[in-house]
Amino acid sequence: MAYRWTNTLTRKDATPEALFLNRRQLMAGAAAGVALAGTGARAEEVLEPNSWEDITEYNNFYEFGTGKSDPATYASALTTEPWSVTIDGLVDRPGEYDFEDIMAEMTVEERIYRFRCVEAWSMVIPWNGFELADLLGMAGVQEQAKYVRFETLYRPEEMRGQSSRFIDWPYVEGLRLDEALHPLTIMATGIYGRTIPNQNGAPIRLVVPWKYGFKSIKSIVKITLTDEQPINTWQALQANEYGFYANVNPEVDHPRWSQATERQIGGGLFSKRIPTLKFNGYEEEVASLYEGMDLTRFY
Ligand SMILES: Nc1nc2c(c(=O)[nH]1)N[C@H]1C(S)=C(S)[C@@H](COP(=O)(O)O)O[C@H]1N2
Ligand SMILES: [Mo]
Question: pTM of whole model > 0.85?
Answer without folding.
Answer: yes
